[in-house]
Write a structure and sequence with these properties.
- It is a single chain.
- The chain is of the alpha+beta class and about 250 residues long.
- The protein is about 25% helix and about 25% strand.
- It has helices at about 35-45, 50, 55-70, 105-115, 170-175, 190-200, 230-235; strands spanning about 95-100, 125, 135, 140, 145-150, 155-160, 180-185, 205-215, 220-230, 235-240.
- The chain has a ten-stranded mixed beta sheet.
- The protein is globular.
- The chain starts with about 35 loop residues before the first helix and ends in a 12-residue tail after the last strand.
């Protein structure tokens, strides 16, 4: 429902002047004029906005049509609070990763420590044969240096560097493109592999490397899948989870 309150100016604006056409009449003796003719004389001497037949209705109709979508032939529909369903669950981004070289890893950490005013993080190793991982259809043998800094209260920065001479998504991405943002990481509370399949079915990229960390089914254990979404999204997508959410992750070939 719309309620309008407006006052039309007098004299009328230029854009409405063509609408002002006085009804022609012949001079007559008022005493000999009919009631209908008297009303015509009154109409021609009334204020302009009363003489513009249908003008107010036309203006109001145009305004309402514009507000309601009438100009495009559509029908106005009350807005709803529908939430779009994404391929990835909402609010699951936990970190992004910088990939650098094995030789320059410490130097990269020093620079970010200076940038963020944070201490250099402890450097660990991840991946390798013990991760029970897969890379390009083969058992993952390559490892990586790994460390984290806190970017803000909700997002971390991960730093990785692939072991030289041993194939991995860490090493191969750096070899091809150099130091860059390697991936965006999303931690999900459902089957990690099921989300990876949903991601693939949406045409956003294919799983290229996956593996585990920690002791299986123990506190602190988890898994990840790297989706090659560089062409579709500009960066690799990492889907990760913990505990039972890692069930169903394919085992590497023997």
């Amino acid at each position: 429902h719309f309620h309008f309150n407006f006052t039309l100016p007098d004299p009328p604006p230029p854009w409405i002047q063509p609408k002002l056409k006085s009804t022609p009449f012949v001079r007559m003796n008022p005493s000999s004029m009919t009631e209908h003719q008297m009303r015509g004389v009154t109409a021609n001497t009334a204020p302009w906005h009363q003489r513009v037949t249908g003008c107010g209705v036309v203006v109001l109709a145009v305004v309402v049509a514009a507000l309601c979508g009438g100009a495009t032939g559509t029908t106005a529909v009350a807005p709803t609070s529908t939430t779009l369903q994404g391929v990835l669950p909402a609010n699951t981004l936990t970190h992004f990763c910088i990939i650098t070289s094995w030789e320059n890893y410490n130097q990269t950490l020093d620079r970010y420590s200076q940038l963020l005013g944070q201490p250099v993080p402890q450097i660990k190793r991840a991946g390798g044969p013990d991760s029970n991982g897969t890379y390009l259809g083969k058992k993952l043998m390559g490892s990586t240096k790994i460390g984290f800094m806190q970017a803000n209260q909700m997002t971390k920065i991960e730093f990785l560097a692939g072991e030289p001479g041993v194939p991995s998504w860490w090493l191969d991405v750096y070899t091809k493109r150099g130091m860059e943002v390697h991936h965006m990481g999303y931690e999900v509370s459902e089957s990690v592999w099921a989300v990876a399949q949903r991601f693939q079915a949406a045409g956003l990229g294919d799983p290229v490397q996956w593996g585990h960390w920690g002791v299986l089914n123990q506190d602190g254990s988890g898994c990840y899948v790297y989706m090659d979404s560089v062409q579709s999204l500009g960066v690799t997508t990492e889907i990760l989870g913990n505990g039972a959410f890692c069930d169903g992750l394919p085992l590497p070939p023997s």
